[in-house]
Write a structure and sequence with these properties.
This protein has 278 residues and is α/β, with parallel strands linked by helices. The chain contains 12 helices and 4 strands. Helix 3 links the parallel strand 1 and strand 2. Bound molecules: nicotinic acid adenine dinucleotide, adenosine-5'-triphosphate (ATP) and magnesium ion. Nicotinic acid adenine dinucleotide binds next to helix 6 and helix 10. Pfam families: NAD_synthase. It is an enzyme of class 6 (ligase).
Length: 278
């Protein structure tokens, strides 16, 4: 039955030992970095709980590697605002908590605006112009996420780095990320955790309370700044987490979630070729 198949695919345990998950995922990051022969980890720090948690795990990983070897591993925490960000203080609180080897800022506004304006201009010149302001703003939101991805890969290229991704199972199951934007990365150390389990790890490591308890937001749409993920999805993270942890008895929410899962399946599979349909 689909529900159980999806639960199995998402790998979430009903209960976790936070300390063990921290050690296991830190070790995974260390292994990926040493196996790659590279020296640097790169991650955008938004002010949300996912990047706060993974940023700290990344810093723990490089701290341990530097204690164990003579090499100089580092974590670069990247602020990637689009113009001025409303929850900038939360991003700064995350950085204070993470204590990254390096912190830097790259504003994505000019890159994202240029990509979107070029597309609109070209389409209009070709006589295709039937999109509303709301639709255009939504698509620009995805250009922001893809600009963040491009900048992080630029930084990784310049610094012998790997790009980390914050995708966890509550995000993976909903496909609630931009394809080849924040969905693109070299490793996804939070996969297998529900949203409340990500918060559990953050709490255990001593992350700032205001970041742990804040409402998750993609914050991509300029017309609706700081819109909550739950409003966008029409589901609460408690409903998604209960499903993932095998605890949901809410068949209406389960069906809604499964419909979202099926609709976003193209984001989770390898790029199709002719051989997939033969
Ligand atoms: N059936 C199909 N088979 C193969 N490809 C398919 C497809 N349907 C769409 N596509 C392709 O995928 C594209 C749509 O995907 P995509 O560009 O991702 O766009 P889309 O899924 O429409 O939007 C991304 C959603 O993720 C949310 N998001 C994004 C980033 C971060 C976060 C966050 O929580 O922080 C949330 C965002 O708010 C929005 O609701 C289409 O333009 C098309 O190219
Ligand atoms: N303004 C930003 N600055 C830097 N990185 C960003 C920014 N916005 C998004 N990102 C990157 O994209 C990722 C996906 O965003 P997402 O909103 O899912 O995670 P989050 O903000 O860390 O946590 P939450 O989902 O609770 O808001 C972030 O974890 C971060 O790495
Ligand atoms: Mg966010």
């Amino acid at each position: 039955m689909l529900k159980q198949e999806v639960i199995n695919e998402m790998r979430v345990l009903p209960e976790i030992d936070a300390e063990l998950e921290i050690q296991r995922r830190t070790q995974f990051i260390k292994n990926q970095l040493t196996d790659s022969g590279l020296t640097t980890l790169v991650l955008g720090i938004s002010g949300g709980i996912d990047s706060c948690t993974l940023g700290r795990l990344a810093q723990l990983a490089v701290n341990e590697l530097n204690e164990e070897t003579n090499a100089a591993y580092r974590f670069i925490a990247v602020r990637l605002p689009y113009g001025v960000q409303a929850d900038e203080q939360d991003a700064q609180a995350s950085i204070d908590f993470i204590q990254p080897s390096v912190q830097m800022t790259a504003n994505v506004k000019s890159a994202a605006d240029a990509i979107h304006a070029s597309a609109i201009e070209g389409l209009k010149a070709a006589g295709v112009d039937s999109f509303t302001d709301t639709h255009s703003d939504f698509v620009l939101g995805n250009a922001k996420a893809r600009s963040r991805m491009a900048i992080q890969y630029d930084i990784a290229g310049l610094t012998q780095g790997l790009v980390l991704g914050t995708d966890h199972s509550a995000e993976n199951i909903t496909g609630f990320y931009t394809k080849f934007g924040d969905g693109a990365c070299d490793l996804a150390p939070l996969f297998g955790l529900s949203k409340r389990q990500v918060r559990q790890l953050a709490q255990h490591m001593g992350a700032p309370e205001k970041v742990i308890t804040k409402a998750p937001t993609a914050d991509l749409e300029s017309l609706t700044p700081q819109k909550s993920d739950e409003d966008s999805l029409g589901l609460t993270y408690d409903q998604i987490d209960d499903f993932l942890e095998g605890k949901s008895e809410d068949t209406v929410a389960d069906d809604k979630l499964l419909a979202i899962y099926l609709k976003t399946q193209h984001k989770r599979v390898a790029i199709p070729t002719v051989y997939d349909s033969e």
